[in-house]
């Protein structure tokens, strides 16, 4: 004959309280008043312990007794004494209090603790519009990693050593750091739905002369991408020239004008409308890192995530070397990519014993722990 399942004392404690009172009929904080009276030995000392007035303690105790339907204390000249029912409630509440304390300890023990960091720097467009789409998936995979994602600035130029991973638009000529090409950005003209509704849709490059153009210039002496395209022809004037990708994209999204943006922005917001005018620019994207940084697993994990999730050219036509026009297929494909990215089982092993690649031999060989 099977033995009856033993019920934990904490379950009995909660069951006894639940049986005695309906949740909506009681203020659970009244049990704190009850415990304070037991601990202090009098209503006056309980009031001092709780930093409230004695009439409030008396009123809250009376309310608790009324809700439970039992007398918890017998009044005497020596102070309140627990009744039989009061002792049963005290036992139940004490067990419940221990269970809550244990639950709190378990929750704190289960909370992710930061075990390491990875410092990444990238351009403001990727940092503002692309990388945030994958942040949730990254932390689902690696809750113990503190990711420090910085936006590239001129002050950081030539100082790759202060970052673990650098995403940029040029390939370092020197042996250090290790570098690899991870994507190709394809720039074409974009406008917003609201702008096109108000000003009409250009059908050719010549039509752009009748539209408001917005441009990006990395340096004040640079005239921007539109000027480069019309280098041998009469250049239409631009209404906005900025040195940051994010404000340029926001200006387009808000209907301020037309600008050259990377094709992936169609996945960021439906307001970005691509214009097929036969004008395209390509910009390679490189990822570089210091060899020694790979000795730390948070850097290896972040590098793997960037290469196989954030910039997966095998699955992302918008980052492929060959240009492909934006289409509805991209949205379905991207939704599948985000679903796969959120799978924590795809995280690489946290292997602190893994070694950095040898400093001899091929200078730019990617370590075997990172899938090509």
Describe the protein's architecture and organization.
With 372 residues, this protein is of the alpha/beta class. The protein has 2 domains: 99 residues, Arc Repressor Mutant, subunit A (Orthogonal Bundle); 231 residues, 3-Layer(aba) Sandwich (D-Maltodextrin-Binding Protein, domain 2). The chain contains 12 helices and 11 strands. Strands 3, 4, 5, 6, 9, 10 and 11 form a 7-stranded mixed beta sheet that branches. Helix 9 links the parallel strand 7 and strand 8. Helix 1 crosses helix 5, helix 2 crosses helix 3 and helix 3 packs across helix 4.
Quickly count the helices: 12
Tertiary shape: elongated
Oligomer: single chain
Query: CATH class of the largest domain, anyone?
Result: Alpha Beta
CATH topology of the largest domain: D-Maltodextrin-Binding Protein, domain 2
| CATH architecture call of the largest domain | 3-Layer(aba) Sandwich
User: Uncertain segments of ≥5 residues (pLDDT<50)?
Assistant: 4-8, 17-21, 351-372
Strand content: 15-25%
Overall tally of domains: 2
Distance between the termini: 60 Å
Instruction: Count the beta strands.
Output: 11
Radius of gyration: 33 Å
Q: Biggest β-sheet: count, sense, barrel? A: 7 strands, mixed
Approximate helicity band: 25-40%
Task: Kindly name the structural category.
Answer: alpha/beta
Q: State mean pLDDT (0 to 100 scale).
A: 80
Order of helices and strands: HHHHEEHEHHEEEHEHEHEEEHH
């Amino acid at each position: 004959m099977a033995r009856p399942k033993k019920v934990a004392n904490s379950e009995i404690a909660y069951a006894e309280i639940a049986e005695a009172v309906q949740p909506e009929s009681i203020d659970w904080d009244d049990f704190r008043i009850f415990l304070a009276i037991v601990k202090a030995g009098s209503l006056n000392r309980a009031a001092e312990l709780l930093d409230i007035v004695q009439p409030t303690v008396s009123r809250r105790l009376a309310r608790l007794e009324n809700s439970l339907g039992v007398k918890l204390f017998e009044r005497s000249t020596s102070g309140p004494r627990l009744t039989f029912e009061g002792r049963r409630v005290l036992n139940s509440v004490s067990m419940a209090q221990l269970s809550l304390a244990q639950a709190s300890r378990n929750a704190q023990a289960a909370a992710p603790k930061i075990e390491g960091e990875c410092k990444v720097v990238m351009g403001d467009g990727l940092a503002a519009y692309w990388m945030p789409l994958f942040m949730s998936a990254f932390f689902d995979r690696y809750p113990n990693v503190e990711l420090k994602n910085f936006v590239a600035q001129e002050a950081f130029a030539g100082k790759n050593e202060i970052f673990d991973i650098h995403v940029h638009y040029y390939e370092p000529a020197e042996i250090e750091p290790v570098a690899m090409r991870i994507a190709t950005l394809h720039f074409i003209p974009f406008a917003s739905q609201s702008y096109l509704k108000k000003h009409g849709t250009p059908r050719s490059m010549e039509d752009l002369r009748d539209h408001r153009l917005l441009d990006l210039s990395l340096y004040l002496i640079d005239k921007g991408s539109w000027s480069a395209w019309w280098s041998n022809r009469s250049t239409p004037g631009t209404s906005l020239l900025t040195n940051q990708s994010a404000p340029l994209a926001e200006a387009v999204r808000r209907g301020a004008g037309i600008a050259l943006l990377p094709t992936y922005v169609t996945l960021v917001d439906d307001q970005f409308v691509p214009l097929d005018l036969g004008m395209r620019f390509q910009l390679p994207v490189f990822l570089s890192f210091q060899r020694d940084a790979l000795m730390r697993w948070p850097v290896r994990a972040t590098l793997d995530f960037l290469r196989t999730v954030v910039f997966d050219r095998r699955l992302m036509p918008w980052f492929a070397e060959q240009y492909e026009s934006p289409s509805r297929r991209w949205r379905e494909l991207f939704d599948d990519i985000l679903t796969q990215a959120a799978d924590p089982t795809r995280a690489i092993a946290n292997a602190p014993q893994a070694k950095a690649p040898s400093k001899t031999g091929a200078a730019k060989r990617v370590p075997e722990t990172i899938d090509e």
